[in-house]
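User: Can you help me understand a structure? I only have the sequence.
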Amino acid sequence: MILTRWNPWAPNAWGQFNQLQNEVNRIFERYDGGRAEPAAFPPLNLWENDNGFHLEAELPGIELADLEITVTGPNQLTLKGQRKAVEPKDSAAHRQERLFGSFVRTVTLPTAVDADNVEARFENGVLKLDLPKHEDAKPRKISIKS
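Assistant: Let's start by predicting it. Here is the structure, written out as tokens:
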């Protein structure tokens, strides 16, 4: 390994300072008041095709009775619920990474959906939604007259 003495006046030194500052800023962007900011819950994936949208949200430990799904306006989907804490009796927590309590997650879809025909399934802790596009939002082929 080759060791070189660091020269603060070298032309590359300011670039190194900027790189270090960018890395430190990136680390602290994730923190608020010394606490890590929680990720959006529930985590979800959203796909689109010509007919509509397919959404999958991870909801482990959620009871169906504690989950509410609403479509408001033409394109707002809201998932609302509560995950109850499970604490074994006569025990002390050493690590608690899973969050508990109420949550609300609203997603704005790119186009209007037909709220009357939304289908929802809950399988193995994963909520699966099929959200068909509203007829006005579906692509239409336009015939050209000559």
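Now, to help you interpret it: The radius of gyration is 24 Å. The CA atoms of residues 83 and 101 lie 5 Å apart. Let me know which part you'd like to focus on.
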